[in-house]
């Protein structure tokens, strides 16, 4: 049973490629810092803002995404992830579209050097 029923216009996406069209079940954005004026790196991200961004992404054919939190202090990272997860949990659409989070920065390993990802 799906978490949310999407209207039939979102069942698949048609993209223009050369002379023809390509049919796909939806696009995945694996690193998105924000969309439609909404910044996913904001510790004050509201459920309404996340919903607005996701609806705008869905209209472009993106059906799955990984909101990205960029390099910042560990405290800022925790606040952003908390805001994202709180907003995600309050939206059936977000529960469907947000597959996880893309983390940038040096907080992924305690080893010195390039321990983040980009």
How does this structure look, described?
The chain has 118 residues and is α/β, with parallel strands linked by helices. It has a domain at 28-103. 30% of the residues lie in helices and 25% in strands. It has helices at residues 47-59, 74-89, 92-97; strands at 13-17, 20-24, 27-32, 34-35, 38-39, 62-69, 102-103. Strands 3-6-7 form a three-stranded parallel β-sheet. A two-stranded antiparallel sheet has the order 1-2. Strand 4 (34-35) and strand 5 (38-39) form a beta hairpin. Helix 1 (47-59) packs across helix 2. The longest helix has 16 residues, at 74-89.
List the SSEs and their pairings.
Elements: E1 13-17, E2 20-24, E3 27-32, E4 34-35, E5 38-39, H1 47-59, E6 62-69, H2 74-89, H3 92-97, E7 102-103
Parallel strand pairs: 3-6, 6-7
Antiparallel strand pairs: 1-2, 4-5
Helix pairs in contact: 1-2
């Amino acid at each position: 049973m799906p978490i949310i029923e999407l209207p039939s216009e979102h069942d698949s996406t048609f993209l223009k490629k050369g002379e023809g069209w390509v049919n796909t079940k939806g696009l995945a954005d694996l690193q998105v810092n924000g969309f439609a004026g909404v910044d996913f790196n904001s510790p004050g991200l509201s459920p309404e803002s996340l919903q607005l961004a996701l609806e705008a992404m869905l209209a472009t054919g993106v059906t799955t995404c990984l909101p990205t939190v960029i390099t910042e202090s560990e405290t800022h990272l925790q606040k952003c992830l908390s805001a994202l997860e709180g907003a995600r949990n309050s939206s059936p659409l977000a529960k469907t579209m947000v597959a996880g989070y893309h983390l940038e920065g040096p907080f992924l390993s305690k080893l010195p050097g390039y321990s983040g990802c980009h």
